[in-house]
């Protein structure tokens, strides 16, 4: 059985950690509080890329790349909006902080 925290708690912890470190973390779309999927947009200079929390066969969470290349921010925007239309339970979080994936991994990945 998985010990994953409800999504809304993971999101809250991630927002606090990033904002407390001087970065910017915002909720672009709120999803289902208990078990909604989590898509994270990472701002990198003028680019934007997406990663998603996925459950592996070993019942551990991992971050996997999602969507189009980071050098096309408009395509990334379109990607997450299309995903959200198909899955209203999806959470979409945007992070603008150095080493964003480190914050995500330390905060929301179950070990």
UniProtKB/TrEMBL annotation:
Pfam families: DUF1491
InterPro entries: DUF1491
Descriptive protein name: DUF1491 family protein
Organism of origin: Sphingomonas endophytica
Lineage summary: Bacteria, Pseudomonadati, Pseudomonadota, Alphaproteobacteria, Sphingomonadales
């Amino acid at each position: 059985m998985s010990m994953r925290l409800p999504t809304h708690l993971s999101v809250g912890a991630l927002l606090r950690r990033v904002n407390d470190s001087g970065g910017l973390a915002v909720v672009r779309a709120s999803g289902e509080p208990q078990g909604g999927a989590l898509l994270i947009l990472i701002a990198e200079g003028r680019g934007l890329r997406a990663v998603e929390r996925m459950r592996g066969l070993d019942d551990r969470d991992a971050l996997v790349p999602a969507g189009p290349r980071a050098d096309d921010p408009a395509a990334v925007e379109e990607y997450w909006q299309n995903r959200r239309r198909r899955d209203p339970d999806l959470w979409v979080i945007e992070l603008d902080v150095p080493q964003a994936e480190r914050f995500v991994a330390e905060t929301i990945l179950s070990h």
